[in-house]
Here is the input.
Amino acid sequence: MLLIVKPYTCVKTDLERTIDTMVARYLSTSAVRPLRRAQFDVKAIVSQVSQHAEAIHARQLVSGGQLIAQLNALPLQNQEAKHLDTQIAGVQTRRKAIERQIKQDKTHMHQLKGELVDLKNAFKRLNLDLTSVRDSIHETCLSLPNLVGKDVPLTAPQEVCSINPMPKYVADPQRDHHDIMVRKNLVDFKSAATVSGNSWYYLVNDGALLEQALVSYATKRARQHGFSMCHPPSIAKNEVIDACGFRPRDMNNEQQIYHLAEGELGLTATAEISLAGMQIDSVLELPRGVKKLCGVSRSYRAEAGARGKDTRGLYRVHEFTKVELFCWAHPDESGQVLQDLLELQMKLVSELGLSAKVLNMPANDLGAPAFRKYDIEAWMPGRGAFGEITSASNCTDFQSRRMGTRFRDPATGKTAFVHTLNGTAMAVPRIMVAIVENFYDPATGMVKIPEPLVPYMDDKTHI
Here is the structure.
């Protein structure tokens, strides 16, 4: 006789299935690392008041005068906090002494009860005063931009070197990317204006393929230079955006972030924000001195074209694809890591055959997080000017103190705040502008594809 044994199956009740779903959701999304209160070295800031004042002045901030006034008040506030701490300690010491005395001999209770009540009230009052002073100190520290590197120029970019220099740079209106790309059906601005408004666009046909080619090329080079890949979210909590240095309005009071009407969320202006957020409240192991991540995302800029500058075509748009390089580095290594980022960017630009210049950017062009920044500007003959295509910044511990990101020193086992750096590998629309305007041939009406992109363009050499 053949005995067929059916496998035992456990049929779960609706309640059990609901509990399983709730547990799975908790483990995957709800067990978050909270963004804690930023931690500042107030003692170090007080000892560098003059350097911080110079950094604020050099940045030419709209609210610079008010911020310097807050900064100058910091030493006295810090002394006041210490004095209040001492008073609180004295009150607590006396209070404990009385409580011991009463415990040893309850006959003293009536005599000491009044003083005990006064001490409790004094403790509450002093604590409130201390909290107020510390909150004021914290808000001042939170509002300070980063210090500025000693060799950062003040008001004008300093040219470091050139890439594929030309004997002469001549503007050529025939090479305007807007007209070329519309005529060749690579982009559709009219439909995008109907659907989304000004400064949006559809990339179509070989225009869309060119974007994919640029992303594939940039990410391949990034991997070859030790970067791991990541596709981060393009929406982040406002507190994370703020901690990264992108406040609702920037250091010159210009709006830079799209905030969602419901919920405390915003669209990321760069993958830098969500990449930095990956290590909130974390302790990193940096055996090689640096951790490198390459993120591909859509980026959103609220101010694009709002002031009427570069509103034509793809140069300044509200939404675009960007390949971002992000690094967490040991403080002793961050200077070299910035140079490594810059060298990779220069290699990408050089291989694409673009003529460009590398600039050490001035203090008045630095965002709040940046200690030092390099830009690369490519020649764009249709625009008749050089235009920024990449940026690389060392933010030292500005972001990590706000994100709670530390590293562990293998020698001592102690932790300290890590340095963060970011750089553009590929801001797609800007590079497309440079490629189209430089490699368009008016005689044939064709655009030559840079050699490194050909394998990603279905082997097309021209479009």
Summary: DSSP finds 13 helices and 17 strands in the chain. The radius of gyration is 29 Å.
